[in-house]
Amino acid sequence: MRNNITVEKILLEFDPVAQNLLLALKKISKNFGYICEKDSQKIAEYFEFPITKIYETASFYDLVETKKPANLEIKVCSGGDCNLGQSTNVIREIENHFRIRVGDKFNPKVRLKKISCLGRCGDGPIVIVNRKVYERVTASSIYKIFAEWI
């Protein structure tokens, strides 16, 4: 619980109808870093959906986390414009630096994930580190970003 915010308080901000499920999931994920199994059950009960529907919806969207985050969560946009802007080179540089691969869950301290287009194509490649957004990132500028976090 952060700042007296609870999952229940967040849920009460939304009518329990299908079109509000994603909004509630995003807000809960943003406030707590991820949606744990216990919270998923509360959400399922509130919306009167099976818990599988909660996981299905949450796991489909890049901005809703269903697993406890690593100490350093790095997300790189893989949309068309970001790829043209060399996001592949940025990913390769991150992988080499930390000796990890996109999607690996073996390192509890660092996790690298490709995410779909964020709609910020003119600012790409976009990199998000622990929810802080960086624009126009290059393979060489990634080290300035690491210096903020390591």
Tell me about this structure.
The protein has seven helices and four strands. The chain is an alpha+beta fold and 150 residues long. The protein has a four-stranded mixed sheet with strand order 2-1-3-4, covered by helices on one side. The model has no long low-confidence stretch (mean pLDDT 89).
* Class derived from helix and strand content: alpha+beta
CATH architecture type of the largest domain: 3-Layer(aba) Sandwich
User: Which stretches are poorly predicted, pLDDT < 50 over at least 5 residues?
Assistant: none
Give the N-terminus to C-terminus distance in angstroms: 26 Å
The helix/strand series, from N terminus to C terminus, equals HHHHEHHEEEH
Largest sheet: 4 strands, mixed
CATH superfamily of the largest domain: Glutaredoxin
Count of separate structural domains: 2
Average pLDDT metric: 89
Strand order of the largest sheet: 2-1-3-4
Number of helices in the DSSP assignment: 7
**CATH fold name of the largest domain, please?**
Glutaredoxin
**Overall 3D form:** elongated
- By DSSP, the count of extended strands is 4
Radius of gyration: 17 Å
CATH C-level of the largest domain: Alpha Beta
SS strand fraction:
5-15%
